[in-house]
Amino acid sequence: MASYCCGPLPGRPSVPLLLLLLRVSLAQKAAPVSMSAATSLSGYFGTKSRYEEVNPYLLQDPLSLGPPDHRLLLPSAACTPLQLRALIRHGTRFPTEKQIRKLSQLHRLLQSQERPCPVAQQLARWDMWYQPDMDGRLAPKGRLDMEQLARRLAARFPGLLAPQRRFAFASSSKHRCVESSAAFRKGLQLALHGQPSARDMENEETEINDKLMRFFDHCEKFVTRVEKNTTAMYQVDAFKQGPEMKRVLEKIAATLCVPVRDLNADLVQTAFFTCSFELAIKNVNSPWCSLFSEDDAKVLEYLNDLKQYWKRGYGYEINSRSSCILFQDIFKHLEKAIAESKSSMPISSPVILQFGHAETLQPLLVLMGFFKDKEPLTANNYKKQLHRKFRSGHIVPYASNLIFVLYHCDQAKGPEEEYQVQILLNEKLLPFPHSGKTVSLYTDLKNHYKDILQNCHFSEECELSKTNNTSTDEL
């Protein structure tokens, strides 16, 4: 799996955007966060969550490896790591153009208010600094996310992420992913050589591979039956009209002194996510955060998780089956590394680093059976699901990472125990669904997922039936 470039990188930011990036960078250095409304809500931002929410010790030391976990096979005299495969979500990003348009709409509504209303007036005076051309680009904090992750992984796996090792880089074609790859490479250079490379990190070779990193775009059944099907998000739409969201909507309308009819669930969620963006990007406690209590945040988190569940999770089978192409590619490289090891050959791809999206990682984790609740998430079981396993902010925050590590163990009792695998999610060991243990014999892992490896064929899974049926899959 060679690292190569398949075409020019997306265009660089415009001059006005570069000036805004500088403003953000300065704000980061000048505005530390205190205990505030933002931090009391920060555990409920779902896919817009900071990486530090899943590893709080990084707030004190961004290069800390956290509490020691002796279950990790490395370092070990008996087991040597052969291969590391990391699937990494891009770092902290700016809002998309669609999100910025909604925020502008809400901001204009508050600016047009004629009634005296302290909260609305404060938000009307807020500097609407987001610009449409930011459109989901990697923020300066996102570059730091990647650089620091690279340095931590190099410290955690020094035998694999080492000088003279071969690294294969691949990325989604999205600008934020390509830039995340470059920033990670810069951090790796710092970790391994103590200084940045003399070469322009933006122009380092990275394979653009949307077939693996954006498999969902290439799955016709998913696109037709889920992505573009207006009925597929029935549970999400029903929750927006339900009693929990109605209570939040009425409270926010009263706080802003606007008629409830002027607001909707999407605008309220936009205000909530603005709080999250300001915290993640600028490290500030935004005035938008003051609109929400922790109870409000739980409701809005559930709304976001419902969308993730039905669009990228267990809601429809095609959500996860579309990722079988990526899953099989992981095992193909594990198999190749084992074959090379058995033949006493050098491992051709010891480190594979791939940069994608929350939508890349989440379906893959679902395919493997992680974070599955006994009951599906629906519009009418909010209270029953308060302690659910499927919480997207705990699974795929910004810079989330899923790492497969293959080991060769010399003191194994037999050939079947010679090769073992561990999986880390966000730098923490993840127990396997089939055993509850944090290490698995490769043969056991391969046998557990035998059906997916043998029978999940991307072209067949994603082919739309001849009848023009847009109904969704059964649960």
How would you describe this structure to a colleague?
With 475 residues, the protein is of the alpha/beta class. It has one domain (38-63, 75-462): Rossmann fold (3-Layer(aba) Sandwich). The protein is 43% helix and 9% strand. It has helices at residues 15-30, 37-41, 97-111, 118-125, 140-156, 175-193, 210-213, 220-227, 234-240, 243-256, 265-282, 294-312, 317-321, 324-342, 358-367, 392-395, 442-448, 450-455, 458-462; strands spanning 79-89, 167-171, 207-208, 351-356, 401-409, 419-425, 428-429, 440-441. Strands 1, 2, 3, 4, 5, 6, 7 and 8 form an eight-stranded mixed β-sheet that branches. Strand 6 (419-425) and strand 7 (428-429) form a beta hairpin. Helix 9 (234-240) runs antiparallel to helix 12. The protein starts with 14 loop residues before the first helix and ends in a 13-residue tail after the last helix. The relative contact order is 0.18.
Q: Which stretches are low in confidence, meaning pLDDT under 50 for 5 or more residues running?
A: 1-15, 25-35, 470-475
Strand content: 5-15%
Architecture in CATH?
3-Layer(aba) Sandwich
**Secondary-structure-derived class:** alpha/beta
Short description:
The protein has 475 residues and is α/β, with parallel strands linked by helices.
Give the helix/strand layout.
Blueprint: H1 15-30, H2 37-41, E1 79-89, H3 97-111, H4 118-125, H5 140-156, E2 167-171, H6 175-193, E3 207-208, H7 210-213, H8 220-227, H9 234-240, H10 243-256, H11 265-282, H12 294-312, H13 317-321, H14 324-342, E4 351-356, H15 358-367, H16 392-395, E5 401-409, E6 419-425, E7 428-429, E8 440-441, H17 442-448, H18 450-455, H19 458-462
Parallel strand pairs: 1-4, 2-3, 2-4
Antiparallel strand pairs: 1-5, 5-6, 6-7, 6-8
Helix pairs in contact: 3-4, 3-11, 5-6, 9-12
